[in-house]
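From: lab user (bench 3)
To: helpdesk
Subject: output format question, protein + manganese (II) ion

Hello, I'm new to running complex predictions and I'm not sure whether the block I got back is the full result or only part of it. Here's what I submitted:
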Amino acid sequence: MEYGTRASNPSKTRTQCIVVGVYEDNQLSPTAKLLDKASKGHIRKVLRRSDIQGKQSQTLLLHDVPNVNSPRVLLVGLGNAETIDAHRFASVTMAAITRIKKTSAKNTLCCLLDAEVNEKDLAWKTACMVERFDAGLYSYTEMKGKPPESPPTIESIDFQLADKADRDEVSASIAQAKALTLGIAAAKDVANTPANICTPTYLATEASQLEKDYTSITTTILEEKDMEKLGMGAFLSVTRGSDEPAKLIVIQHKGAKPRDKPHVIVGKGVTFDSGGISLKPGATMYEMIYDMCGAASVLGTMKAIAEQQLPMNVVGVIAAAENMPSGKASRPGDIVKTMSGQTIEILNTDAEGRLLLCDALTYVEKFNPVTVIDIATLTGACLIALGTHATGLFSNADEVADNLIEAGNNTLDRVWRMPIWEEYQTQIKSAFADMQNVGGRDAGSITAACFLARYTKKYRWAHLDIAGTAFKWAGQNKGATGRPVTLLTQYLNDRANET
Ligand code: BES
Ligand code: MN
Ligand code: ZN
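Helpdesk reply: Thanks, we reran it on our side. This is the complete output you should expect:
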């Protein structure tokens, strides 16, 4: 998708579709007013018929509006002009692209920047639209036997500027957001790829491709024998039942001086989670192709920041393995030793994410990180606690947590903080080992985070549980959401702007 800007009179602009906003109570946006004037009152006449009442996300497609060059004018309801906020603007944008998609317009002039949105500037509105338009147009077709027959699809969208002087701000925002959407799409693609193709080796190949595509990136792959040397007994216990070799993937983006400490992101990359010997029930086991969404978000974020040439050092780490039952698989009751020296009694082989992550989190100490953020589809309990709207956030550093909350609120890729108080640690005490890998039914996502906290004492750390937010299995938009690539990219950009 190409995005651009225009500043001439929209009624004269050569385009196949114009998108303009209308508010409740027949109130017109500035651009709708312009078109109404050019068409000698045609827009108001249509509104008086009440097929559209300007309610949030309503759409009405008009053809051949008099004295307007574009053959199509799409009216989009913005709701009450006084109360339009970030959320409403985002869903209006989504409604617009959903309708545009059904036309055969190849290019569109989008005039929604003229909507005043509470507390949001032009750059924000631009980024919001680029992100939603891209999300609205995304589909995963890689696995179709023959390419789906589809009408000609939209190739370019231009944003109408009220003033030429806004061009630099809007263009810069387009460039940043385009980089982000490339990262989001990459994350969705790899996450949607089924587990018979998307193996740990496949994730390693994707990471190596980043090295080929971007000069700022270097990728290193650690094999099982390397992990043995490092003493990663917990990580290796997860992969034991699988025929697919596990990989610890390290992707380095070097955007600052070599001496500058890096920010580290670590993703859970379980390419399929059958549960292992503690086998999951069959009914929804297929969802577990998405148990590598943390890894996908690391790949996507690394791509986005490399595209943006972010002037900062960032290390992306992926703990990739498949969790399968077999004669070689770990058994409930097994005790393993981690790289940190601490031992774990594995009471449930389905609590495998924390086993991979604890060793990966010890490994990243060597980078002397500013902060470490891990991203994992870690617990079904997080979906129960927060549903599909908020990612669970846990942290040993208030500043890091606050920064993530702020980045989430700004981008609408939101997080909600949960506690990791010492009191919860008693739930994972083990009789024989230093800890056990499950803490019972109560506070399942908290005890999982408390487990990880035992491996992250040496640096400022946050854990994002994305079990509820990274993918949707039901409904029309089924598949990976690309979350939390937006959150992480915003967080890292904010940190780069701080210094
Ligand atoms: N990958 C799952 C968690 C999950 C569940 C992610 C649903 C997305 C949707 C994880 O490995 C797991 O199986 N967790 C167990 C932990 C339990 C055994 C303590 C769970 O949530 O049931
Ligand atoms: Mn599991
Ligand atoms: Zn899992």
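A quick orientation on your result: The chain has a mean pLDDT of 97. Let us know if anything else is unclear.
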